[in-house]
Design goal:
2 copies of one chain form a homodimer. With about 210 residues, chain A is α+β, with helices and mostly antiparallel strands. Chain A folds into 2 domains: about 80 residues, Jelly Rolls, CATH 2.60.120.10; about 70 residues, Arc Repressor Mutant, subunit A (Orthogonal Bundle). Helices cover about 35% and strands about 15% of the residues of chain A. Chain A has a 4-stranded antiparallel β-sheet with strand order 1-8-3-6. A 4-stranded antiparallel β-sheet of chain A has the order 2-7-4-5. The first copy, chain A, binds a DNA duplex (30 and 30 nucleotides) through helix 6.
DNA sequence: CGAAGTATTGAAAAGCATCAAAAGTGGTGG
DNA sequence: CCACCACTTTTGATGCTTTTCAATACTTCG
């Protein structure tokens, strides 16, 4: 079992200060941040994108539960249960900090904000499963681009695994592969930080 | 704006709810519970299913944001903003009570529970957009059956509008129509099929 | 180097969307 | 009570999108 727990900073691998309460933690793409059932606390995403999964879906595949991008809180349920109910993995390189505002338990307002953010995020994710393959993938990359430092995602360099993209968008790996190839050919429209305007240009240009 | 009175005969206009703390309100299928932007408070769903929508999706159609079934809280964001961020409609006949625990603002634990429930619900709804049409529709009806008194939904009598089912599952109305016809012909096997033990209990106990 | 995972590509088929039209349903006013 | 309207549901025919199956390359890492 990999020990990354604790907001006190003890036992952290290669981190600088044990004294600071909110020590940022960095996770590379694909890294498992925590597993469902483990003890631990809540985190705030300050860079990158995190994927949350709910156990197995019967075929041995994890079933996507949610995504978290910059500003989102993950693992808030630990404040109630003490354990995680979902499994978290880094979709892209990402940075988290323990979510304990000013060293104390998050208050009323903090919880409400987290809830409101979660609801908004969910509507975004749900929309990723509507429309054509090209639109879905482009939308996902657009959402993720907010959480990527620099333009790597925009340039198509540091994409998540196709398998992750496929599971999030509800497509197959093959379709995602073909879709990304197509998007590259079109110059990746819509991937630059907004989305809607560039999206329409793509539609107009044909494919 | 139409004021719908509770089934108990109280003619509520919202302001009087200071006196009667937890007065249940009943809404018929299709009824608009609240609109995004309106002032109001949070509710707990005690019967039926509520659909939450986020504004227009560009084509004039509401974009599904979430569903709420028995036990779920809707409109919690009003505790922070004072106004609703989503629009709520009754997918089936449903009953709500104002969410103010013991006449006070919901506390820390109540909020955490609401958040945890919302996250679970998200995962359920996301799953409704994966797999084949027949599975999706059957899963939705399964989720909703928890909130329907009696077996009407199982018997196919008091279904939501096909349009709602279509928008929730990400299918077209035509496909949903054909799918439901097929499920009926099969005796609705899909409803017990994948997951819910409660489904089978419901069938066995016979309303 | 070899193994395991990951990505690409093709061809064929399944599934669903689309378009179109008819039939059913509920509510309103004459 | 009926005619009428708006909306919803059903059904058919057709074709596009995506999946499926299969085979091959590319990457990463012990």
């Amino acid at each position: 079992m990999v020990e990354f727990s604790g907001s006190d900073g003890f036992g952290m691998t290669g981190d600088l200060s044990d004294l600071v309460v909110n020590t940022p933690r960095h996770f590379p793409r694909g890294y498992s941040i925590y597993q469902a059932g483990e003890k631990g606390g809540a985190w705030r995403v300050v860079a990158g994108t995190v994927r949350l999964d709910r156990g197995q879906d019967g075929d041995g595949n994890d079933a996507l539960a949610s995504l978290a991008v910059v500003g989102d809180i993950i693992g808030a349920e630990t404040l109630l249960f003490g354990r995680y109910t979902f499994t978290a993995r880094a979709l892209s390189d990402c940075t988290l900090i323990p979510w304990n505002e000013y060293g104390e338990r998050p208050g009323h307002e903090g919880l409400l904000k987290a809830l409101a953010r979660a609801e908004q995020r969910f509507a975004d994710i749900l929309a990723l499963r509507t429309g054509r393959a090209a639109d879905r993938v482009a939308r996902l990359l657009s959402i993720m681009s907010f959480g990527v430092v620099g333009r790597r995602t925009l340039a198509g360099q540091v994409l998540p695994r196709l398998r992750d993209i496929a599971e999030i968008t509800g497509l197959t790996i093959e379709t995602v592969s073909r879709t990304i190839k197509q998007l590259r050919g079109e110059g990746l429209p819509g991937l630059t930080d907004g989305q809607s305007t560039a999206e329409k240009e793509k539609d107009a240009s044909g494919r």
